[in-house]
Amino acid sequence: MSLKSRLAQQDIVVAPGVFDAWSALLAERAGFETVYLSGASIAYTRLGRPDIGLVSHTEVADTLACIRERIALPIIVDADTGFGNALNVRRTVTLLERAGSGGAAWRFSSKTRPRPSAAAISRARRSSPPWRWRARSAPRSMHERVAKH
Asked: What 3 state SS string does 74-119 have?
């Protein structure tokens, strides 16, 4: 069953968080229908750091590609805020599609999470969310990909 059709059902979709190919393989063998890859899990396990914005979109895509190689389940990916401006949002979508994402969870907010440099990040992200939505929607293949899984 595709992720899109599964999400259309009324039952809850339980997607355990994974952080690498091994944890994803364990989730698949345990019988889950989909998995969730978060930037925080990559920060904790790959960098040994808290989730303070250190993980880049290329690190997320690289981790996703390793997971995709090992499992057939749809993978929902934490795309954060798109990792920057509208061009970065489009690039993030392209990278996640290429790496095998089944869908993405986006956080579009002008407010930032508390981080050591929150003031600097806030100044850099003063743009309104609509441009992020337009950039995210431009590459249509991710939406078509959800229908294929």
From this structure: CEEEECCCCCCCHHHHHHHHHHHHHHCCCEEECCCCCCCCCCCCHH
- CA 53 vs CA 34, 60, 114, 140: distances in Å: 25, 12, 10, 27
Domain ranges of the chain: 3-148
Q: What is the pLDDT of residue 148?
A: 44
Between 111 and 4, residue with greater pLDDT: 4
> What local confidence, expressed as pLDDT, does residue 107 receive?
82
CATH topology of domain 3-148: TIM Barrel (3.20.20)
pLDDT of residue 60: 96
Burial letters 77-111, b for 16+ CB under 10 A, else e: bbbbbbbbbbebbbbbbbbbbebbbbbbebeeeee
The torsion defined by the Cα of 87, 89, 94 and 99, in degrees rounded to 10, comes to 140
DSSP state of 49: S
H helix or E strand, kind and range, residue 124: helix 118-124
Q: Which residue reads 């950039």 in tokens?
A: 135
Residue whose structure tokens are 């401006």 = 85
